[in-house]
Give the backbone structure.
Amino acid sequence: MKQSLRHLGQLLAVVFVIGSIHLVTILNLNYNFPVTTLYQLYAINFIIAIAGYAMIRFAYWLKSQVEGFVFLLGSFIKFGVLYGLFLANETAAIHDSKQAFLHLFIPYAVCLIWEIAALSKILNQAPQSSV
C-alpha cells in the first residue's frame, strides 16, 4: 500500500510539473489552443493512468502474471477514450492539425512513461518463478 501511494504521488507530481510547463508554454507562445481542453486532457490521462495502475496492482495481487497484458489493454483503452473524446467527432476540441495532436500526445506520453516505470518496478519486485 505504501508503494502504491508513493507511485501515485509521483504520478501527481509529474503530471503537475509537466502540465504546468505545457500550460506556461502555450500561454507564452500564444497558441490558439483552449486551456480548458488542456486541463481536460491532463485530467483524463491522470484518471485513466490511475485506473490502469489499479488494474495492474490487482493482477499482481492475484499472482496471475498477466500484468503486461493488463498494461497493454489499459493503453489501448486510454488511446480509444482520448481519440473518441478529442479527435473523432465533429464537435471535438482538437481538430486535425499537427500542433493540436502534439498537445494531445504530451499528456498521453507523460502518463504512459510513468505507467511503464511503475510496471517495471512492480515486475522487478515479483518473486522469481522456478521454471
About this structure: The two ends are 29 Å apart (CA to CA). The chain has a mean pLDDT of 81. Residues 2-29 form the longest helix (28 residues). The chain is about 80% helix and 0% strand.
